[in-house]
Design a protein that fits this description.
The protein has 8 helices and 3 strands. The protein is mainly alpha-helical. The protein has 2 domains: 174 residues, no CATH class; 34 residues.
Length: 210
């Protein structure tokens, strides 16, 4: 149970964060030209284009602002809540502390250079570099970019820290649900033993001592 939950945390975090970033860049790209013709080597009657959803200039100009950080934090918490995954132990963090903790992880983990590197990786994965095409059309979809982003984010402290914390919280919660009654049970047993000894002593005194 704990292992499955912690495994899902990595995908929840990476998918939610990547979606916010891709949507932001898509909004920027929507105001750009519908497509960019990319000139490749040895191309005959071919067009290599980026779809209007992802624009290279928008990626290059992307900045991780406070609004982006907050949006990613909210998206992660909402996605986790919808899937009934507790990212942080309720015994250790209240709502405000959880928000601040995740927000801090986002601000230190998600960078503009990481986003740009993921974009470059998605281009390379679709053979955009040194492409040789004849009578063909090649285009990049936003899904390739998102996939590259999710991979990059899953390797950051944002994903790994939340995954580790969730795993530890789940382990603590399932180790022994009755542990909270341990001390009470021990005191009750001691009290019972004392009462029994007292009764036996009283009976013994009554029978033999009197």
């Amino acid at each position: 149970m704990g292992q499955n939950q912690s495994s899902s945390v990595a995908s929840i975090v990476s998918q939610a964060a990547a979606s916010v970033i891709v949507n932001n860049i898509q909004n920027c790209s929507a105001s750009s030209s519908q497509a960019q013709n990319v000139v490749g080597g040895f191309l005959f009657f071919s067009d290599i284009t980026q779809t209007s959803t992802i624009n290279q200039t928008c990626v290059a100009n992307f900045q991780v602002t406070n609004d982006i950080t907050t949006a990613i934090t909210n998206a992660i918490q909402q996605a986790a809540s919808e899937q009934n995954v507790a990212l942080l132990s309720a015994l250790q963090f209240n709502s405000a502390q959880t928000q601040a903790y995740i927000n801090n992880l986002v601000s230190t983990s998600i960078t503009s250079s990481m986003v740009q590197n993921a974009y470059t990786s998605s281009l390379q994965s679709q053979n955009f570099l040194d492409t040789i095409a004849i009578f063909s059309t090649v285009s990049q979809s936003s899904s390739a970019f998102q996939s590259a982003l999710e991979t990059a984010i899953s390797n950051t402290s944002l994903a790994t820290s939340l995954q580790t914390n969730t795993k530890q919280s789940a382990t603590q919660a399932t180790t022994n649900p009755l542990d909270i009654f341990g001390d009470i049970t021990e005191y009750i047993l001691i009290f019972i033993v004392v009462i029994i000894l007292a009764i036996l002593g009283f009976v013994g005194y009554a029978l033999f001592g009197g």
